Amino acid sequence: MMRRMRGVTLTTVLTLTTGVLAAVTVAAPASAAPCGNSGILGSSLGGLFGSAFPGGFGSSGGLLGKSSDQQDLPSLGNGPTQTVRWVTGPRSPNRTDTRFGITGTDLGIGWDNGSGQTLMAFGDTFGDCNAPTQQWRHNVVLRTNDKDPSNGVDVPDGVAGDVRSGASVSAARPRFANEALPAVGVSGAEITTIPTAAIAIDGVQYMNIMSVRQWGAPGRWVTNYSIIATSRDNGQTWTTDPRTIRLNLPASVPGVEQIDDSNGKYQVNAYLRGRDGFVYQYGTPNGRFGAAFLCRFAPQDILDLTKYTYWDGKGWSPDTTKSEKVVTEPVGEMSVSWNDRLQRYVMLYGQETSGSLVLRTATAPQGPWSAPVTLLSSRQYSGVYAPYIYPTSGGDSRYLYFTASRWQDYNVMMLRTDLSQLALG
């Protein structure tokens, strides 16, 4: 359990932390998008991102080129995993560049909103390459009614004030998806806020985000904290809840005890609806080289960290420090879901050391998890990361649909894996 701090509340610590971040002078990026420059590593970037920016996204170290350089998706041969369609970008049927001001983005974390739609959360997003800041948004949310991903995902137009339209937009800019949550935007303080997991409970949307302090080498970054944001209008607007903060930096406030280091295990997260009524949260440290840990809670307690319990290797403990790994490192961004065809839980994640996307299965959320099975290798298609299981399958359980991002194109695609072709133990 998170240690109680002497004489202050967690809200106070969050206020102080964000106050320090807000005090930093924000310099707009001169160029930071997949536009007609040398990529986001270009010298015009100055000190905003630093020279190792790709460590926050893909593992291939590639550069972003012009927006028109997004490539057609290739056929991957006769293997079990195939590309379906781009979800975002100029080459997507959604034409997110002209309809939502999204030329490049990543992640695409999909979840069932509980009322017939799928919501999708994206990370750092760029639009008009000629705009002064290239329309950088730290995160955006799109909505779809499409329940059949076999031919991709169709996103309807955004309509101002319509919380079930394709995106949150304003009347003044109906073709520009609004940022969901802000960030200071300065390396060394808070460079961005990125979604890592989302779930709907009783009509409320919950999104777990990480506050990124600085990018490092490929696959490595440092976070300030993770925190849960809530939306009561179907992802139209979001508010962070300070009770859910998990600090990952020293709390240098007089009279305040340092936050438990075990919170660092839950900086990048994934939610799972267990068949036993609990919600399970898988967590990894910042970056893509840590192990995966596990906690659980009753759905109504999602905003009360004191009600969470942690897998200690034998059972469930209220003590955060007892949290033991359930999957050995390295584990990148992950997603977990129950699969009716396999009658098992399925976990997808990126394996940074091999540049591959892998799948594991288990009969219980805590495992034991099977050995990883490769779904997509870097030799087949390089620079692909962050596989997120799509919440609908179009009625054909033979296929597992998931989104993933590719660094070179800096956009999100839909893929599918034929489960009947996998050798699962």
Automatic annotation (TrEMBL):
Keywords annotated in UniProt: Signal
Domain of life: Bacteria
UniProt signal peptide: 1-22
Keyword Signal: yes
Renumbered residue ranges of the record's region Disordered: 63-101
Biased composition annotated in UniProt, kind: Polar residues: 70-95
DUF4185 domain mapped to chain residues: 92-416
Membrane spanning residue stretches: none
InterPro entries (UniProt xref): DUF4185
Name the UniProt record assigns to this protein: DUF4185 domain-containing protein
Protein species of origin: Williamsia serinedens
